[in-house]
């Protein structure tokens, strides 16, 4: 139950939505799987809620670049044959989201991207895929690379008057492999550490890996590693990149830094094998 | 009624479906679906919260944000003026119009005055303690106005763990008590010093348990409706114990019991949480009487996680002779029971020491237990009720001494299990074990669990990648708690009525937590009359129409409530038999009740329908039925002959009548890189005496195992440095889900209790401690030689990882 009063808007145009965002301490409502519980627990008390359901942001377009609307749900990702063919990593990630239809069919990729929970699956995936985030506001539009979007736990470069409209992905080169490995302690647990990896074949010295580790740090950690035996590089470099280690009720200080290399190696192995 | 055939239930296949022969049970032992299953599945059941009528006022509770403080000024003016708000009550308001809540046990047991009010009056004792009640026309308005109540706190030093509570000269968790120690127990049997000196091998260890909670699907809810013109209160609520709740309300409100009706609608699980003594039970009643309107409280999930339990530390030592006989065991227990409320949750800490040395025959035993109060939320009843920790510690001790002896722990168990002929057996605490057949249960388990195969897989596993561990554990669960001087005094009452159409009504004091005991009671009563369970209606949870009793706690429903129903039914049967004997021109002793008919044993053609005999009694009260006592209604109370409240020669009482046991085996796998544990295989043998309904027993047992695995691996309440509960959602306090659990293979043994008319023992909590223990032993096994250092439950990976590192090095 939400204790405070607020205005609910479901505008029919992006311009109307952006006008509302510019006025008040408004919150954007995607699937609501974050916003509604947070409002219920009094952790967010927006005076207005702007629902994006009528803005047509739930499309997946594949024409050269792959453009995923901010309102696309995990289920839509899983149901799109084309997306699964072009961005299998995204489908792998969506396929491992638990919570049943109430979460998978309701929660949006854009919502998860913007909420920036260190424990969520989406941010590190966007970083691994080098996604570009399109942000819109009354005063204009801009594009931000996923790796630059995350500034801290639950913090992004999105301004309160801005709305994420789309996530844009360049299709990985042919022959690229991908891997997604997630450590969670039980079905109901948050992800503890996630690793998303794209492996691209190179002519000399083995594949190139673009690896993003989520859950372990306040923001996703990106590593680019070349070579046939990247595990050593991961073990050497990853722990020091976890500069703001995340800890919570599931695992205290030190745990995630310690186990992250193993999780990363599993994603790397999968990416090399899954090509 | 004779004790029913046991073998039918023993092999788990159930008896033949046809009516059995003369004198045997037709329905006991059968796996029939629970009564009203369709209504539950189709959503046609009204739970308490479904009964909040339009126009009912709603309560939001302002709770303490500090662990320990004196309450200064409370300003309710702004909240009182907020939209929809009808009233704001504080502790002072409550004190002006009611009496303190009675505690469940005598006040003289506590070290200081125990006035417990439903809203804190002077001093707050934990984060989350109710301080003020905001009553509004809608829950939204009540919740919204909560933040407008201003409270001045005068900080007191909080006591947040047992070590601080016991520190000499340390802070006091309750300012007007001279000590933080709320209870002690000292149990002695034999000569410990001599036994330890004479021992061939000794070993010791320490195990601590984190806090846990019950987290039922349905949170608590209470609806009070005071009828001012009739001076009568009706309380509907999520209540396991409607009669004790009425007793509590009568004292708080200064009313006679006759002025109060307490109703417990069907429950969505409780696991001990909904026992009497929550402040909101009294609060809504007080508010309704003062405001002369119905008032409802519905607990949020966050509030539900304030229910604390189990945090304790054991330091134990065990000794064995050269033949592997355990000759001595000693243990010191320190339990942190949080703040003391009106409920009896803290009693669990005093049950733990009484269970040692569980299923083993140990001549020399010493257990010292101390319960300390701290400024954490009060303990609330939870499945296991303290027995689970005793079992886990005992099972660890057996494993450790087996290592010292160089013997397999299975062999050590075999050499020390109490033999069948040793029963009844008095434990050092005074508890009198009714019956058991432990070693054959272990054999039966080894038929069900492929030990050799798992040992092979353990050897074959790449120990740098995955470690496999195999565990065994016994579990002894005393059931049917009957504490002297409390409203859990150890009897239950059933009123059985045969109505004029020949159907049967059982109004019983035991309530159903949602586990299906009504179906079991219908089965045993149907057998008395030779009727169908569908002919028997069970009425529960209404103090106006059910007789007095404890309610549903400690797996007592069939053991006590069912037994009382059988005793009453047997008396009614003899009345109906008297009438039938006249109708059939036979002797009552010749008659058999089966398949809805009453027939002459030797001549099946001479019979009369049960309904006809009953109808005759109701319609011929001056002729055929002139000598039959009317109405056809009998009330009986059942008291167990295996409860002793008079201290024995050692000064001990026996507060539990029944001792179901189980033996468990599990295989687990630890991911070496992350210390994540997965349960690969699970098997158990369970013995609760005569099984009335195998499906219901298996459902309870599997639920207990699932809960035990959760408590061993994932579930832990955490508190921050201010004493606030950090784990207040299902995303931070994680219950096991189906994909997290293996298939639980289960077998029955049936060793009837000689003390209970049907031979049944409690079934409900049994298995919980065994599951915690077997997972613990399996994890220790996976760690090899380093397993001896296992010392903390649950095994969250961040704690297990350093142990694993030690095992690898």
TrEMBL record, chain A:
Keywords (A to Z) from UniProt = FAD, Flavoprotein, Oxidoreductase
**What is an example of a GO molecular function annotated in this UniProt entry?**
oxidoreductase activity
Keyword field contains Manganese: no
Enumerate the Pfam families for this protein.
Answer: FAD_binding_5
Residues folding into a coiled coil are none
Q: Which residues form the FAD-binding PCMH-type domain?
A: 1-174
According to UniProt, the name of this protein is: FAD-binding PCMH-type domain-containing protein
- Could you tell me which species this protein originates from? Chelatococcus reniformis
Automatic annotation (TrEMBL), chain B:
InterPro entries for this protein: Ald_Oxase/Xan_DH_a/b, Ald_Oxase/Xan_DH_a/b_sf, Ald_Oxase/xanthine_DH-like, AldOxase/xan_DH_MoCoBD1, AldOxase/xan_DH_MoCoBD2, AldOxase/xan_DH_Mopterin-bd_sf
The coiled-coil segments of this chain are none
Q: Which GO terms describe its molecular function?
A: iron ion binding; oxidoreductase activity
Q: Where is the Aldehyde oxidase/xanthine dehydrogenase a/b hammerhead domain?
A: 42-157
Q: Which SUPFAM superfamilies match?
A: CO dehydrogenase molybdoprotein N-domain-like, Molybdenum cofactor-binding domain
Tell me if Oxidoreductase is a UniProt keyword of this record.
yes
Q: Which UniProt keywords apply?
A: Molybdenum, Oxidoreductase
Keyword Membrane on entry = no
Name one matching Pfam family.
Answer: MoCoBD_1
Q: Which PANTHER family match?
A: ALDEHYDE OXIDASE 1-RELATED, XANTHINE DEHYDROGENASE
Designated name of the protein: Carbon monoxide dehydrogenase
Q: Organism, per UniProt?
A: Chelatococcus reniformis
